[in-house]
Structure formats: C-alpha cells, structure tokens
Amino acid sequence: MMIVASIVPNFLMGIITGAGIQGLMILGGGFFRLPNDLPEPFWKYPMYYIAFHKYAFQGLFKNEFQGQKYPSNVGRHKINGEYILREWWQVEMGYSKWINLAILFGMVVLYRVMFLAIIKGVEKAKPALRRFMSPDQKRMKQVMASLTATPLHEATLQYDQASLVIQNGYKFTQQAPDCYRSCGRLGEHFLIGFDA
C-alpha cells in the first residue's frame, strides 16, 4: 500500500488502487479457488506466486494440519493431516511452514526497498520535471531591499507559477493580489510589483 501511495497523486486514488491490488491478490492467493483450479495465464502465473496471501494461507494450513490425525466419516481409521493438505487444500508440501514465513518477511523487506527506491526516484524526478515545465528565465528579477541598499543587500527572486526562490535571508510573503509580493527584513515591509 505504501508503494501505491507513493505513486498515485492523491489519497483517494491511493485507496482505490491499493484496494484493487489487494483484491486481485486475494482472488489469486489460492483460498477462494484452489491452486489447481486457477486459470493459467494471469491468475496462476504470476498472480498466484506474487500474492503474499498464498504464503500466509499455506503457512497457516501447514501449522494447523501437519502432524495431526482427524477422524474419518468412513470407518474407524483416521485421516492424516498431510493428506488433507495435499488433496483438499492443494498445499505445496515440498517446504516447511518456516519457509513460508521467511518468504513473507522477504516480501516485507522487498516492498520496503521498492518503496524507498520509488520515493527517492520521485524526489529526484519532480524538480527536473518542474524545471522542464516551468516558464522561461525571463521572469528572473532583482529587487532592492530598501532604497539605500547596496548591491550586497539585494535579494534575487524567481517568480514562477507556484513558488519563489529566496536568497540573502529576505523573507517574501504573499499579499492579496497575485502579482504583488511583500519583502521584509528587520521590520522593513514594502510591496514589490511583478509583471505577471
């Protein structure tokens, strides 16, 4: 879910997309339809093997049924738990429940690393995308901080559609109209006009 949240633009889309992915994984996890009954192209390969529900269900079933004997409806003999796992639940018996648990922990680590990579990638890509989409550099202006200021006390600001770049310690705050900004340092306040 964190990976989905890092990709989609807003909260609602994250919930919708995440719920859809979880639904697909639940359907392909081998509980609603047994593994041998899943259609091959999409549900069995790859959905059944990447769904974490498969490993959770199989680990749970192995924990509950392995080494147990259950009474049979026919005769006095008992049914072996391994038989139930193999024949009824179609659980893969080639490895233990601890392997299922290790796979689940591995998925947690893998998804966290994927989340970190996506966050760092988006962090690097957004400024480049903004530079690519921003208007040309004609909007760079130099503004004097006060009427008696020397060039050492001037502040450079770049007025693009959404943000201001502030230098030399000046603080710029937005005033009522969009085309005006206010600059202040050490109690001095005055308006600065921009051509929008």
Automatic annotation (TrEMBL):
GO molecular function terms attached to this record: ABC-type transporter activity
Pfam families, sorted: ABC2_membrane
Membrane-spanning segments: 12-32, 98-122
CC annotations in GO: membrane
Alphabetical keyword list: Membrane, Transmembrane, Transmembrane helix, Transport
Span of domain ABC-2 type transporter transmembrane: 2-65
InterPro entries to which the protein is assigned, alphabetical: ABC2_TM, Plant_ABCG
Topological type in the membrane: Multi-pass membrane protein
Localization terms from the record: Membrane
UniProt similarity note: Belongs to the ABC transporter superfamily. ABCG family. Eye pigment precursor importer (TC 3.A.1.204) subfamily.
Protein's UniProt name: ABC-2 type transporter transmembrane domain-containing protein
Lineage: Eukaryota, Viridiplantae, Streptophyta, Embryophyta, Tracheophyta
